[in-house]
Design goal:
This protein has helices spanning 13-21, 45-49, 58-68, 77-94, 116-131, 143-155, 168-176, 188-196, 202-207, 210-217, 219-228, 259-279, 318-332, 352-356, 366-375, 407-411, 413-417, and strands spanning 5-10, 30-33, 40-43, 71-74, 98-102, 105-109, 135-140, 162-164, 245-256, 282-293, 304-315, 339-351, 379-382, 386-390, 398-401. Mean pLDDT is 85; it is low at 357-398 and 401-419. The strands form 4 sheets. Strands 5-6-1-7-8 form a 5-stranded mixed sheet. Strands 9-12-10-11 form a 4-stranded antiparallel sheet. It contains 17 helices and 15 strands. It has 419 residues and is α+β, with helices and mostly antiparallel strands. The termini are far apart. The structure holds a DNA duplex (18 and 18 nucleotides).
DNA sequence: TCTGGGGTCCTAGGACCC
DNA sequence: TCTGGGGTCCTAGGACCC
């Protein structure tokens, strides 16, 4: 059977969440601000109609917002996360084949649904009734086209919150009305590059030579073009994969110049990120600390830097990670700058259980040291999926599965033994 | 002993998304 | 004085090993 994807997207999600708990906000222009009340990250339809753009810095428009009667809310991510979970649970009741794509979007497999129109009507009504959140639905044979359909469902009041792009003629007509930048996966820079190659519209992108796209723009653009033709290249991702990185970062309320202050911030970033990582049962084999000045202050000397550091053993221990993050910070620290932002990324995440199960639970543990010493001089073979240790004191070669070790871990064996 | 090519790893940066 | 935070994927170039 032909594929059919439905993209369910919550309308103006953060603004809608605020309205659920404050019905007086209905019908009024509402915007939600980012951390530190920096800029606009969500707008109700009424706010959009006033011409307020995404990312508008609040401090520049504060007065104007007041004049226009725009209601401003600081963001409340705990609330939005909770509302999101409720919406997703309801959607899961409509089909088990569901991919939660973001906090406010999900792709559903609707290929087998008989009366699609009635099904979607019921879905929208249920979500609205049980959560107070309005959603739009776009349906098409590929994810990229489902995104297009969803956009039309939102923009066109006559659509009734749902658009179907199954018929090729209808797809053609829909794409004709769009610019390149309206496509999922094409932003400003890519649009400019495509235009320079003579590809100016979604229809031209759809018709472009796949080999040329692959060569000039890479595999992502080639797939996007295929998806526009109705050839599905992006499958539904049903299983939620393990996270590959966890980031904690913040802009400082005011510029910071002292090393000690940034150290303090970095320590708190690490503990936040590590806690999040532990909740997911993961450990980090690599850590990156970064700092930067305020790029908006052109009169200031600019500096940005990051430093990565491979841990001898993947770990989820906050104290170990803080030590590493501080070492990385010292390597990139320069006096004399006004730092505006800093952060820590935990990357190369592996299952914590695989780290704890084996040889090197704790590098400073005496037994671990002895084990590592015993490994010295061993015959090591790095296979595709395994690392095999031979000889000395082992009844038979000892194979460790690579996927239970981090990549960096296995290739830095010497480093490990040097501890 | 010399040479070349392939594979992998690492880092940095770009681009995009919500 | 004041412009978010958290992610993913891809590419390119250099180092290194076999």
């Amino acid at each position: 059977m032909a594929r059919l994807f439905a993209l369910v997207d919550c309308n103006n999600f953060y603004a809608s969440c605020e309205r659920v708990f404050q019905p007086a906000l209905r019908g009024k222009p509402v915007v939600v601000l980012s951390n530190n009340d920096g800029c606009v990250i969500a707008r109700s339809n009424e706010a959009k109609a006033l011409g307020i753009d995404m990312g508008t810095p609040w401090h520049l428009y504060r007065g104007q917002f007041e004049e226009q009667g725009v209601i401003v809310r600081s963001s409340n991510y705990t609330l939005y996360g909770d509302m999101s979970a409720r919406v997703m649970r309801i959607l899961a009741g409509f089909t088990p084949d569901l991919e939660v794509y973001s906090i406010d979007e999900a792709f559903l497999d609707v290929a087998g649904i008989v009366d699609l129109e009635a099904h979607v009507r019921r879905l929208r009504a249920t979500v609205l009734q049980w959560t107070g959140i309005p959603v739009s639905v776009g349906i098409a044979p590929t994810k990229v086209l489902a995104k297009v359909a969803n956009r039309l469902a939102k923009k066109d009041p006559a659509a009734g919150g749902c658009r179907l792009l199954r018929d090729p003629d209808v797809q053609h007509e829909a794409l004709q009305a769009l610019g390149l930048g309206d496509l999922w996966g094409v932003a400003k820079r890519m649009a400019t590059r495509l235009e320079a190659e003579g590809i100016r519209t979604p229809l031209e992108l759809r018709a472009a030579d796949p080999q040329l796209l692959r060569q000039r723009f890479g595999v992502v653009m080639q797939r996007l073009s295929q998806e526009l033709r109705g050839v599905s290249c992006l499958p539904l991702e049903l299983a939620v994969p393990d996270r590959k990185s966890v980031v904690a970062s913040r802009s400082f309320g005011r510029p910071i110049t002292a090393h000690a202050d940034v150290e303090e911030a970095v320590a708190s970033f690490v503990s936040r990120a590590a806690a999040k990582m532990r909740r997911q049962g993961l450990a980090a084999a690599h850590l990156i600390t970064f700092i930067e000045t305020n790029p908006f202050r052109e009169q200031d000397k600019q500096y940005r830097a990051q430093r990565g550091l491979t841990l001898p053993v993947a770990t989820a221990d906050t104290a170990t990670l803080i030590t590493a993050a501080h070492a990385a910070l010292s390597a990139i620290w320069r006096d004399g700058y006004r730092y505006k932002k800093a952060g820590v990324m935990l990357v190369d995440l592996v299952k914590a259980s695989s780290v704890g199960s084996g040889l090197f639970d704790r590098p400073d543990d005496a037994r671990s040291l002895a084990r590592m010493k015993a490994l010295d001089g061993l015959n090591m073979r790095f296979g595709r999926d395994t690392v095999t240790l031979g000889r000395t004191g082992l009844p038979r070669p000892w194979a460790l599965r690579r996927d239970q070790l981090s990549q960096r871990f296995t290739t830095h064996w010497e480093e490990l033994l040097a501890i």
